[in-house]
């Protein structure tokens, strides 16, 4: 019988949940509360346009923001299902440090991938739709890198190095 412990299911679940939760922070904080960084704000502006265009652009942005929230909800739900499966396995350790690190890793991956694709490749929106948007976009990417590094450090500095060859759980 192989009693070797495996953190990978916990890391995968936490990373998936971090992607979803990072998206929720982005959508709730930036899109809804601060009312910028909407999905198509660079293509369909909501400032300096006539009232009819404003209404249409707001409806379209709201729809795409809704699809964005569907994505973040699905990522979070899949992460919860993965976590449920992971903690039911006897060979998966219950490590808060590894789990929190995985959440940070996922959130950072979300910020980095979303920022590169939407801000720099597709140019469908920026953090702010102002002349100085590049600085804010770079800060957003930097937050992604910082969260990834924090997550990596938390995971790899966990004192329970249970998925290393030669380690066997106590029986």
UniProtKB/TrEMBL annotation:
Positions of transmembrane segments: 12-34, 67-87, 99-122, 134-155
Pfam families per record: DUF2243
Entry keyword Membrane: yes
InterPro entries: DUF2243_membrane (IPR018719)
Annotated keywords: Membrane, Transmembrane, Transmembrane helix
Domain of life according to the entry: Bacteria
Protein name in the entry: DUF2243 domain-containing protein
């Amino acid at each position: 019988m192989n009693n070797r412990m495996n953190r990978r299911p916990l890391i995968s679940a936490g990373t998936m949940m971090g992607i979803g939760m990072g998206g929720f922070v982005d959508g709730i904080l930036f899109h809804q509360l601060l009312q910028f960084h909407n999905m198509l704000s660079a293509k369909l502006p909501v400032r300096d346009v006539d009232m009819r265009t404003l209404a249409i652009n707001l409806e379209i942005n709201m729809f795409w923001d809704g699809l964005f929230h569907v994505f973040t909800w699905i990522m979070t739900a899949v992460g919860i299902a993965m976590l449920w499966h992971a903690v039911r396995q006897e060979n998966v350790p219950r490590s808060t440090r590894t789990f929190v690190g995985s959440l940070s890793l996922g959130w950072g991956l979300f910020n980095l991938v979303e920022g590169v694709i939407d801000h720099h490749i597709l140019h469908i929106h920026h953090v702010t739709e102002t002349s100085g948007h590049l600085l804010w976009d770079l800060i957003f990417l930097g937050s992604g890198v910082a969260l990834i590094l924090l997550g990596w450090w938390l995971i790899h500095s966990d004192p329970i190095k249970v998925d290393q060859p030669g380690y066997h759980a106590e029986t």
